[in-house]
Predict the structure.
Amino acid sequence: MEHKLENRTLTIYLRGRIDTSNSKTMEDEINQIRLENPADAIVLDLEDLEFISSSGLRVVLRIKQCCPDTSLINVNHDVYDIFDMTGFTEMMDIKKAYRVISVEGCEVIGKGANGKVYRISEDTVVKAYLNPDALEDIHKERELARTAFVLGVPTAIPYDVVKLEGGGYGSVFELLHATNFAKLLCRDHRPVEEVAKMSIDLLKIIHNTKVNPDSLPSMRELALQWADFLKDYLPLDQFEKLHSLVAAVPEDNHLMHGDYHIKNITRQGDENLIIDMDTLCHGHPVFELASMFNAYCGYTELDHSVAEKFLGIDYDTATAFWNLSLRFYLDTEEESSIREVEDKAKIIGYMRMLRRRIRRNGFDTEEGRAEIACAKAHLAELLPRIDSLVF
C-alpha cells in the first residue's frame, strides 16, 4: 500500500476493491503505516478504488475515530454515492474525483487574462485556466461569480470543476446557445454601435452594484502597486506625479469586472451575460476604462494585428468600439469631455502596460523595447497636463 508523509499529513493510496475478504488485512496494513508515520492528519486517496463494502466503510470510520482530521479525496462517482447514501459525507470531508475532459478542437468563445473559455457542447462551456495549478483560483472565481449573481449581475455560475487532458484544470458552466460579442460583430455582422451600446448597458449594471469592500480586491490598491513598481523606470518628477494621481483617486465600493471586453461578454437569447469573473474587484470606473482602453487600443497600438488575434476584430473596429463605448458610458457627444476622460484612462492604461512589458523581460527584445518606449512617451506627454484621474 503506497503512502507518503508531508508536513505531518499522511496520505495513503487505496486501490481495487475493499470488501469482507480483504478489509481486515487492509486495516492492519493501514494501522502499521500509521504507527511508522506519526501524523496529525490522514488523507485517503481513492482515485484507484473501484468499490467499497460496508466492512470497508467500518474501517474508514475507525480511522476517523482514531484521527479526527481524516479526509477522502479523488473519490469516483460510484464510490462517492456509497459514502453519500450511508451518511459519511455528512461526518467527514469527502471530495469527488474531477472529471477529465478535452478541449481539443473546441470553439473558443471567450478569452481573459487567466484563461480561455471553450464550448464543449451545445449548452456547456469550460474555462481552461492558463495556470496548471489553478484549483485555488477556480474555487475563488466560483465564489466571486456567485457573489455577483446574488447581487443581480447577469452572469453564468460555474457548477463543476474538471481536469483537462494534457494537464491543468477548468471550470464548467452552462451557456445555452451563447455567442460572444466578437462573434456578433464578425459573424453576425451586427452594427458596431448596437453591440457597443449593449456592452455599456451591461457595464453600467456592474458599476451600479455596491459591494462590501472587504470582500473584493481594491483596484486602487493594485494600481498603487503598479505605480510603485515604476519608480526605477521613470524620471522622478513623472513617477511622483503618477503616484500622486493614483493615490488621490478615492476608494469606491462599486463593483468592477477588471477585464471587460467583447470576448468576455456573451449574448444568450435576449440576455447579455458577463463571464470570466476571476478579476472582480471594486473601485472607481477610471480603472475599468483603463483596462478597456488597453484591450481595444493600447495593446494593439504598435501591432494592429493584435486586435484580430486577441479580440477577433480588426484594429479599426476595435478603436471604433472603444470610442463608442466612451460616448455611451459618459452619455455625451461632447468631444472634449470624451477625450478628457480618455486621457485619464490612458494614464492608468499605459502605466499598466509599461509595468507588464518590463516584468516580461521587455528590454530583451526589439518588440518589447518599442512598447516600453511607446508607453513612456505617452506618459511623458499626459502627466504634465492631467491634474486628476477622477471624473
Notes: DSSP finds 14 helices and 16 strands in the chain. The longest strand covers residues 41-52. The radius of gyration is 26 Å.
